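Below is how a single chain appears once it has passed through the pipeline. First comes the sequence as given, then the structure the pipeline wrote out for it. We keep one example in the README because the format questions we get most often are answered faster by looking than by reading.
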Amino acid sequence: MAVYAPRGWEPPDYDPDYEPDIREYEEERPRDAVVDQAKDAIRAFFEREQGNVFYKQQLEVIFEEQFFHWVTSRALSELAAEGHIAEEAEELPGIGVIKLYHATTHRYWRRQGKELIALVGRFSTPGFTAGLGAQGELMFDAALPTVGFLPAGRKVRAYGDRVWNHTAHDLDRVFVRDGIAYGTEIKNTLKYIPRDELTVKIRMCNHLGLRPLFIVRAAAKSYINEVRLVGGFTLVFKYQLYPFGQKPFADEVRATLRLPVDSPGRIADGTVQRFLNWHVRTLGGEEVRPQT
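Resulting structure:
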């Protein structure tokens, strides 16, 4: 594997006034005209799905190729308020409230709703969600070294001679290749990384002299662009990674709820290759293939 010196980037000095664009907070964002496009798409969807029940996050994911999650959320709220679709607030036992949506003509939605809640409840327990987080970290711990990104820290609050004391956050990992250190956050979740957490993690990387690397199942394009503007990269892997041995459950969830979940034995070579290709294009050097 070739080794080469990085060029064109130096770790920035910490600026206490540094603040990424936080206009993406849904409650502060003015109504976007694209919400009307989402409403049209969702109304057409429910015309085709008159006999089915869905929950809010499921619909956000189903429509994420077309609309940001918060756009779908606002469109659902407006359609329900206008009476075009029905919204039901139901209990997700041990977790909280889950919002269900169905066509207003669907009179016998309750049985389906109970079955949906039971299935969602199985992958929403604290134990299972903790397992999802650990699985994502485990799989990328194994995958990134195959293309030369070596681990240099776990649960990081300090790097070199710099320490982050402004919040209680840490970075999941630091990976290093060719003298470049990446402050890495791994999110194996259906939803986007929370907006305030994205902001803090970018600030941490800036303070610690690290390039930000966000490894996520999905991300808004505006988030990806913000990370790019500070010299970082967002690696999107699309399918939520269920723990080893949970493939039958992942298959059930994918087939029943149409959610992008799977339980693969390893991260696909093409996924880590995308990060490597960006690293090589950005810093210069020889491209290599994953070591298997």
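Residues 1-27 have pLDDT under 50 and may be disordered.

See the next section for the split statistics.
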